[in-house]
């Protein structure tokens, strides 16, 4: 069982602890995606727009 | 020879090519973050990647409008965000006669199916308004200042601050009432609510106050 926070100070601390944990979870979710290797389709895309740039003038 | 002269005048020797190269490598570096932001906006991974690619193409086409030396990441995120909302407006308009498009609308049906696979925090995040979610992600996860986040979202700094504050509050109360999110049997890992309870047990009883910091155990998935 978890303790019921009694004083305002306790409550404030509980909120801060929870907020920090949620913040970490948010960053983890975001970082998980950011750490994935870049899918090939993105690299192909950059390559393609690069070629079209060198071709001079865009379609 | 005239042709060559014109060519030389039009393309200041060396410069534009270099600038384009620089711009492109800037885009390349930012792809991981662009994908992360896209994922947080629309939830569905495939749609998010489509969105991120659209944004990259648009950024490339608009590269002349970017001021070198300013924040490319914020500029790119702005493009992605605008793209997201305009795609979605279009999807909503089509929804009347194109059922497929309707089902692809970010934040609607298809997301809810995927939601079964998400952690409680991710599920709670989906219940926030778009404005609150994007503000919270930009500031809380993307590491943007309130000022940059305001520029990306096209609103006042104070507005971003209050959206972030409200988002935090809602998440907290949503995760408090864990059950209401329909949490499944998977209480496995990366679950903020459980992490919170564990941390509380550690901190609150003895509580030397303030600076207690336990090491982040970044659990492998």
Any overview of this molecule?
The complex is a heterodimer of chains A (59) and B (221). With 59 residues, chain A is mostly helical. Chain A is 71% helix and 0% strand. Chain A has helices at 8-34, 40-54. With 221 residues, chain B is an all-alpha fold. Chain B has eleven helices and no strands. Chain B has helices spanning 2-10, 15-42, 45-61, 72-94, 99-104, 109-115, 120-126, 130-141, 146-153, 157-176, 192-203. The radius of gyration of chain B is 22 Å and the shape is globular. Residues 1-13, 108-113, 178-190 and 204-221 of chain B have low confidence and may be disordered. Classes of the chains: A mainly alpha (59), B mainly alpha (221). Chains A and B meet through helix 1 and helix 2 of A and helix 2, helix 3, helix 7, helix 8 and helix 10 of B.
Summarize the entry for a quick read.
The complex is a heterodimer of chains A (59) and B (221). By secondary structure, chain A is mainly alpha-helical.
Shape, principal axes of CA atoms of chain B: globular
What is the average per-residue confidence, as pLDDT of chain A, rounded to a whole number? 81
Uncertain regions spanning at least 5 consecutive residues of chain B:
1-13, 108-113, 178-190, 204-221
DSSP strand content of chain B: under 5%
Query: Termini distance of chain B?
Result: 63 Å
Order of helices and strands of chain B: HHHHHHHHHHH
- Class inferred from helices and paired strands of chain B: mainly alpha
Computed over alpha carbons, the radius of gyration of chain A is 24 Å
> What oligomeric state best describes the polypeptide chains here?
heterodimer
The topology string of helices and strands of chain A comes to: HH
Question: What key phrases describe this protein's structure?
Answer:
heterodimer, A: mainly alpha, disordered C terminus, B: about 220 residues, mainly alpha, 11 helices, about 65% helix, globular, disordered N terminus
């Amino acid at each position: 069982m978890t303790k019921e926070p009694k004083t305002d100070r306790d409550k404030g601390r509980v909120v801060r602890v929870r907020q920090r944990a949620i913040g970490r979870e948010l960053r983890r979710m975001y970082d998980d995606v950011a750490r994935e290797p870049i899918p090939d389709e993105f690299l192909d895309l950059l390559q393609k727009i690069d070629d079209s740039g060198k071709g001079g003038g865009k379609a | 020879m005239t042709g060559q002269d014109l060519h030389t005048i039009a393309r200041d020797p060396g410069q534009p090519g270099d600038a384009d190269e620089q711009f492109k490598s800037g885009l390349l570096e930012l792809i991981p973050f662009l994908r992360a932001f896209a994922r947080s906006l629309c939830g569905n991974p495939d749609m998010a990647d489509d969105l991120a690619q659209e944004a990259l193409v648009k950024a490339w086409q608009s590269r002349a409008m970017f001021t070198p030396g300013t924040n490319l990441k914020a500029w790119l995120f702005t493009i992605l965000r605008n793209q997201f909302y305009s795609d979605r407006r279009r999807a909503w308009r089509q929804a009347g006669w194109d059922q497929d498009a309707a089902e692809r609308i970010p934040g609607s049906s298809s997301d809810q199916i995927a939601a079964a696979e998400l952690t409680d925090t991710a599920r709670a995040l989906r219940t926030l308004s778009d404005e609150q979610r994007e503000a919270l992600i930009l500031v809380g996860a993307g590491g943007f200042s309130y000022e940059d986040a305001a520029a990306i979202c096209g609103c006042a700094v104070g507005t971003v601050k209050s959206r972030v504050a409200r988002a935090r509050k809602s998440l907290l109360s949503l995760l408090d009432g864990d059950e209401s999110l329909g949490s499944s049997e998977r209480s496995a890992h990366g679950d903020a609510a459980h992490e919170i309870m564990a941390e509380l047990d550690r901190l609150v009883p003895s509580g030397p106050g303030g600076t207690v910091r336990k090491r982040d155990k970044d659990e492998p998935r």
